[in-house]
Fold this sequence. Notes:
Number of strands: 10
Order of helices and strands: HHHEEHEHEHHEHEHEEHHEHEHHHHHH
Strand content: 5-15%
Distance between the termini: 78 Å
Number of helices: 18
Shape: globular
Structural class: alpha/beta
Radius of gyration: 23 Å
Largest sheet: 6 strands, parallel
Helix content: 25-40%
Amino acid sequence: MGLHVGGSLRARNPLFHRRLASVSAFVIACAASTTICSTISVSAAPSPMDDSQFGSAAADFTVPDFKTLGFPSGASVTLSDGTSTVYEPPIIPSWSSAIKALAPSPIPDIPLAKDYTPWKWNPNTDITNCPSKTWAVTYDDGPKGLTQEFLDLLKSNKSIATFFVLGCNTVANPDWAKGLRAAYDAGHQIALHTWSHKHMTTQSTDQIINEFIWNALAVRQVIGKVPRYIRPPYGDVDDRVRAILAAFGFKLVIWNVVTQDTSIPVGSGDIIFPTTMSILQPTPTSTDSASSTDGTATSSSSPAPPPKPWLVYNSTQVINNTLNYGQSATGLDFLPNTGGYISLEHELTQEMFYAARIILPLIVSRGYTTASVAQCAAGTDTDDERYMKADEPFVKFLDTVKFPIDVKALQGQVSSTTSTPAPTGSKSSGNVTSTTSGAAAGLRLSWGPGGSALVAVVAMLFGLLLME
């Protein structure tokens, strides 16, 4: 693939920079809200696919009891200032050491980013596109309550998709876990998206490692496989993050079409697209079939790209501009132009589904073949390409994790509960002990050696002061 960087997109387009900043701010706000990761109280073949490949979760599938298994809570917590956050998973030092030992080369000592800086992508290492006339539809941040609606949409269009799922949502609600299993059983690709949707470049190496371990453990409990493909939230990645992902054996996926569905106001309803289908008509020519090695379009018969098409916030028009004008309309023309696309969508709100309901038929009607990310990246869509094999190092590491996971014991604390056997059907076996709450997991309090004695001494001194 040709590499055409030519400076950052933000530097070349100040107005786009401002718009991107506003979109980024909105997305960041979403990441801290209960929409992305919350809890609800409750009492593989390439496209096109035929009807026999679709279906709901297997009848004999039983949702794992994630709390009993020792997983941290998927709940979000409202802070004193009114904002919400999702507690990151607990850090297990021995897990971090095990993954670091798998790194094919030293993890670079790059300072943590103080803020999110988008799109530091390397087309030589990051998966950003598909072959010509092929489209990988991807949905992030699930599973959620809308997963089955997305599956029905995909079935009606005989299309395949890749779902990048969060660990916190996988464990938050039994119905959401069933939706994830249904997506897997229907033949769609399942991939990882971290546990709690943090900006990876702002996290320590240990935090990043544990984000993906907990994510993989939760997903494996539902589908019985360890995904090979991952996407960092916001596409936030640098060479330190890439080196960590290489230690796992993951393949890093980004995108080259941003649908901007996160900009659709929640509660706006279906009326936001009253005349979309009558507006989005194909144009006579397209740049999709021809490009130069530096990523610029070469078709002389194609219409000129519309001015600043990325400023159009209607998700369906973003797709239509891409179909009509090629990659020059995506705002990501610094990436290689193959005439194939990986689009970023989300399965969080009803409005996002309304957009998807128009976007997918539009893609299919214009002659694109939908494919999994694995098909686009590797040219094959086998189970061994989508998911790691049993003898791969990270899978062998996961096999050593004993259930229930005793976080306190693994962090060097003393467990206060008795040993119980792992539930039948879990992917690993063994007897350990307790679990940790979401709050404890997020704060990761640890007194260390002698801590209990120190607390006792302080309490005694405080008592003496009260007596005087």
